[in-house]
Design a protein that fits this description.
single chain; about 290 residues; alpha/beta; Rossmann fold; 2 domains; 10-stranded mixed sheet; about 20% strand; elongated
Length: about 290
């Protein structure tokens, strides 16, 4: 479960939505709202702060004060930089604040917007060691939905993408995430091999997914196993869109399957193009708990 959470905040609709999504995560007790200011001279010769830093601090504190959430401790943090990478600031603050989860909007305003545009996004994924939840504010509320701004409730339908590498992503989800209303386990088989090899890989994947399904079913949650063939990123996005998935769950690295290199095109494509929130599990390495 996640207790300490970091939210990079830039006052955009996405960052506000990211903060609202925290209400759906059981166990959250402390939130740090981080705003990064590019200031040519963060401090003047007299030691006073750049006016843009003071203005950002006032805005952030005002927003934090508007959050009415009993039992939640909210702290604001302003980081003024004159150069360097925004991703370095996010990852450093996450470590300093002992955050177990970073929640951020996929689109934003100003400098934070760069977090999913090009090399900065790769740096966040490559060098960060905290679980990362990427969300996007819905455009409008749909009839019958219950999540913030018309989104599906975050844990109503998990799409857990597995390549069967260690550690087992199903075990990670059972240990770290609150119970979902329903779960789909997905494995994608590439089509670049011969039809015979694809068939063998698909058959093996079905057998392994059924075992994982039985493991998850012990929680008395409806679980479906699915094997797809094709481009990994496109299949993940398509399946999520067509099946009312509320959250896509990926692991940060794998030895085989569609996550051969998590820092490659598959992950970035899903992160940039999926309308569904994406959770990246990263805290299974040494010293990241």
């Amino acid at each position: 479960m996640y207790e300490n959470v970091l939210v990079p905040f830039d006052f955009s609709a996405d960052s506000r939505h990211a903060t609202e999504c925290l209400r759906q995560i059981p166990g959250v007790s402390r939130v740090v709202l981080l705003h990064v200011v590019y200031a040519k001279h963060p401090k003047t010769d007299t030691g006073t702060m750049d006016p843009s830093v003071d203005y950002a601090r006032l805005r952030l504190e005002e927003y934090a004060g508007s959050i009415d959430w009993e039992g939640l401790s909210i702290r604001t943090r302003i980081e003024a930089i004159s150069g360097g990478y925004i991703s370095d600031v996010v990852n450093r603050v996450a470590a300093e604040e002992r955050a177990s989860l970073v929640v951020m909007g996929r689109r934003g305003m100003g400098v934070i917007e760069a977090l999913l545009l090009g090399s900065v996004a790769s740096d966040v994924l490559r060098y960060g060691d905290r679980d990362l939840l990427l969300v996007h504010a819905p455009q409008a509320r749909e009839p019958g939905t219950q999540g913030p701004g018309g989104a599906l409730p975050l844990f109503s339908h998990l799409l857990i993408c597995t390549d069967f590498s260690a550690p087992d992503i199903v075990a990670l989800c059972k240990a770290e995430l609150p119970p979902a209303s329903r779960v789909t386990l997905l494995h994608v088989v590439g089509t670049g091999e011969s039809r015979e090899e694809v068939h063998l890989h698909s058959s093996d994947a079905w057998t392994r997914l059924k075992a994982l399904r039985d493991e998850y079913s012990s929680l008395h949650i409806p679980v479906r196993a699915t094997v797809c063939e094709g481009d990994a990123a496109e299949e993940i996005i398509r399946h999520a869109r067509e099946n009312d998935v509320s959250l896509i769950v990926l692991k940060s690295a794998g030895k085989s399957g569609f996550i051969k290199n998590f820092l490659g095109s598959t992950t970035m494509h899903v992160a940039r193009n999926s309308d569904v929130p994406v959770l990246v599990l990263k805290r299974f390495g040494p010293g990241t708990k």
